[in-house]
Amino acid sequence: MAPPRGRGGSGGGFSGGGFRGGRGDGGGRGRGRGFSGGRGGGGRGSAMRGGGMRGRGGGRGRGGGGMRGGSKVVVEPHRHEGVFIAKGKEDALVTKNMVPGETVYNEKKVSVQNEDGTKVEYRVWNPFRSKLAAAILGGVDDVWIKPGAKVLYLGAASGTTVSHVSDIVGPIGVVYAVEFSHRSGRDLVNMAKKRTNVIPIIEDARHPAKYRMLVGMVDVIFSDVAQPDQARILALNASYFLKAGGHFVISIKANCIDSTVPAEAVFESEVKKMVQEQLKPSEQVTLEPFERDHACVRNMNLSLVFLLILLVGAAAGILYLVFQPKLPKYSIDRLQITQFNLTSNSSLTATFDVTITARNPNKKVGVYYEGGSRISVWYTGTSLCQGSLPRFYQGHRNTTVLDVVLSGQTDDANTLITSLQQQQQQTGIIPLNLRVIQPVRIKLGEFKLMKVKFRVRCRLDVDNLAANNAINIRSSSCKFRFTI
């Protein structure tokens, strides 16, 4: 059957640069040019490599008001159930509008007409205004918010993200939206008047006992309260409302907790607090480039963990005896800076050429390096440049040398430049951190295993960051781990 055809919805075209080429979270190739909030959408599109996303099925249409340039628009399912990708000249994350014809924050709309003449309307989900959207585009493995789910949303504000969660869970799901501010609460209540699956609660999330009679047991808690004690707030609400085997996703804003230390340190501290609260965090995703110094942390289904432990425990001994696997090794061999300039508007533009050596010491184990990787160079809590690794297969006892170009721009960089200069003058070295998140598939003999993520962190001490000068790596060390 031919896919349904239709026309782009209202609200003006997409603009700016957001999603760009390469491979993205959805797994396919794409050439989306950009995404920005549009009128009222907030913020410029910031380049994100690997943005093209491809799913299965979906409607087709002609771009009108919603998709710029008159090209065909294809709406395809994202791997997160209830979320979609609108693909035209630009790619955009969208949700199916539960209240057709209505917008919440002047977001763009995309309308797809089915073969029977009926129309389906989608709303563009702006990752610069929604931390949950930013986490999804950042590659978070799961958020567990899906059709039919019951969600407790802490820190609902005026309802921007809540409205998209409402779209996702649909008419048989429910969103309990808790917001303390009465000013934002008025907007939240007005939005909920047209969305029957949203229950607005104007209360302080630190005191769940005050609204315990309004909230049932939920499948998922999403927390965006931006408070120093947010881990305790999440744990307290989970003790009241989260069903057994339920899940949580929490957004962490580093400078709301401690602005005197690097964001990394804040994230690590908050994860430790969650462990102390018995929340069992399992994955952390930074929200760059959409939100600076933000991260999302989620937990894992404990029943799946238990099953996984049983399966792994049963197979690990046999696999080890047969294949005798060894961890891959990585090293940074060369760092060349081709651009490191402070512009007249105090923005820092940086381009690094990095040579990475990947060694596979195994006799019977191969590694498929998949698309969707992320590599970045950091100084303290600031990302200087980003890029991605190519797709390739690394065979047995193989050494592969990779030359990677990383580029980026940092706004308001005067303080950063001063810190770099002082560091170099006082110690003679500049400490950098190189981070790699690489999806891979392990090949054992003739069998390809499930996809996992290699996470590599390298500490580099260099003597300077001057462009077109010889950069000496005084010392380097890399740590490796993998996650499911």
From TrEMBL:
UniProt keyword terms in alphabetical order: Membrane, Methyltransferase, Nucleus, Ribonucleoprotein, RNA-binding, rRNA processing, S-adenosyl-L-methionine, Transferase, Transmembrane, Transmembrane helix
Spell out the Gly residues composition-biased ranges.
1-21, 29-69
Q: Which GO terms describe its molecular function?
A: histone H2AQ104 methyltransferase activity; RNA binding; rRNA methyltransferase activity
Q: Per the record, what are the reactions this protein catalyses?
A: a ribonucleotide in rRNA + S-adenosyl-L-methionine = a 2'-O-methylribonucleotide in rRNA + S-adenosyl-L-homocysteine + H(+)
Which InterPro entries has this protein been placed in?
Fibrillarin, Fibrillarin_CS, LEA_2, SAM-dependent_MTases_sf
Where in or outside the cell it occurs: the entry states: Nucleus, Nucleolus
Region (Disordered) residue spans: 1-72
Gene Ontology biological-process entries: box C/D sno(s)RNA 3'-end processing
Q: Where are the transmembrane segments?
A: 302-323
Name of protein: Late embryogenesis abundant protein LEA-2 subgroup domain-containing protein
Annotated organism of origin: Salix brachista
